[in-house]
Task: structure prediction
Amino acid sequence: MPLQLAVLASGNGSNLQAVLDRAAQGVLDVEVRLVASNKEDACALDRARRAGIPVWARNHGSFAGREEFDAALVDAIRASGADTIMLAGYMRLLTPYFLNAFPGRVLNVHPALLPSFPGVRGVADAVEYGVRVAGCTVHFVDEIMDHGPVIIQAAVPVSACDSRDDVLQRVHAAEHRIYPQALQWLAEGRLSLQGRVVHLAPSRRPAVGAAADMLVSPALEQGF
Result:
């Protein structure tokens, strides 16, 4: 059965689009039931409307507090029939109330190789630090920002002459490959957690997206 997915986004929603494209190609077992945002003008909402997906958008400033907003969001997600949450550029920390409503079913992508460079400036911080390898991480979400167990990571090269935008473009391309793959592994029931370590059960099913010129772990090209 496909994952019944709710996508939370505050901005452009390019990772949402990557998931919609893979699902349309028949290589990703998800059904996006709802796209929700704390910004009523988020471009991700337009992507959802074009795809015929219901949207929920509320200004978080109109709620008494963070938990009140998350309670309304949980109600909307449950009403949609979704049971798995994909964060796609969602710029708010989730409360324990929200995480407890969907235990082990909330995923996020961060534009850095965690635990390095957490926070909203992941790519910029990496470039300013002078790294020669950047990347992205798909992880389960816990109550600490950019802290949950790692599912999959991809690395991309950085040269001394690269701008922040050069690196950001490579990182986004990597995100668009590994995020759908992580969702597919979850849909197949292949992910298990021991402590902080996520284990991936083997399968003969082909990867959702080829690794191309990036280093991916777990390695997609090895039949994972």
Observations:
- The beta strands are 3-8, 30-37, 55-57, 84-87, 106-110, 133-140, 150-157, 191-194, 197-200, 215-217.
- Residues 155 and 215 are 5 Å apart (CA to CA).
